[in-house]
Amino acid sequence: MASTSDIKNGLCIEHSNDIFSIVEFQHVKPGKGAAFVRTKLKSLTNGKVLSHTFPAGHKIQVVRVERRKFQFLYSDGQGFNFMDNETYEQLTFDEKLIENPGFLKEGDNVDVLFDSKNDIPLTLEMAQYVVLKVEYTEPGVKGDTATNTLKPAKLETGATVNVPLFINEGDLIKVESATGRYVERAKA
Predict the structure, then answer these.
(1) 65-125 to CATH, choices 1.10.10.10, 2.40.50.140, 3.40.50.300, 3.30.40.10
(2) Could you list the pLDDT tens digit for every one of the 188 residues in the chain?
(3) Cα-atom radius of gyration of the chain, to the nearest Å?
(4) What are the phi and psi torsion angles at 96 (to 5°)?
(5) Complete DSSP assignment for 113-152
(6) I need a surface site. Which of 9, 20, 24, 143 has the fewest CB within 10 A?
(7) What is the DSSP letter of 45?
(8) In the chain, % of residues over pLDDT 70
């Protein structure tokens, strides 16, 4: 049993008969009244995000989670299929449990979080940045590199990202997987 003083980003707790990961927290000590901890919690079973306030010193139930490396194989009508890199066991994840499935490319490695007590997969986390090839985008005009104007580009996975005007078809780009934001042109 832990208390609110042990709260940190990424900590997994049991709350309201569900398992949550702490996305954001803030310890607050108002001038008048008792201290409290304001948190933003993300459910690891259904992906919903909620805000909750704990009184200072409140006891919380910490859930032990295990990270295992899995490789993305393919997607079909049932969901997204992954293989454990050590045991070669395969798992199928529903699309709602994956934050941005449009950036998954066959062969990519992801971390799958398991509830250690029940050995149940909770959620998966992609790499922070992914490198993808631009399949289609309007051609850039010479001299259009001075402005911060963006244009849509369709990637090899089917996802669409806004990119600067100098990006052309066939270029490799680095994309932030959590937000879907263009970061930079990648080297081949």
Answers:
(1) 2.40.50.140
(2) 888 889 999 899 999 888 899 999 999 999 888 999 999 998 887 778 899 999 999 999 999 889 899 999 999 888 999 999 999 999 998 887 788 888 999 999 999 888 888 888 888 888 889 999 999 998 866 666 667 788 899 999 989 999 988 888 999 999 998 888 999 998 87
(3) 21
(4) -70, -15
(5) EEETTTTEEEEEE--SEEEEEEEEEPPPPTTTTSS--EEE
(6) 143
(7) T
(8) 95
What is the pLDDT, as a whole number, of residue 143?
Answer: 64
Would the CATH topology of 2-62 be identical to that of 129-185? no
User: How many H-runs (helices) and E-runs (strands) does the chain carry?
Assistant: 0, 16
Predicted pLDDT of residue 174:
94
Interstrand relation of 18-28 and 12-15 (parallel, antiparallel or unpaired): antiparallel
Looking only at the bridges linking them, the beta strands covering 172-176 and 120-125 are unpaired
149 phi and psi, to 5 degrees?
A: -70, 140
Architecture field, domain 2-62: Roll (2.30)
Q: Where are the domains of the chain?
A: 2-62, 65-125, 129-185
* Full-model pTM: 0.74
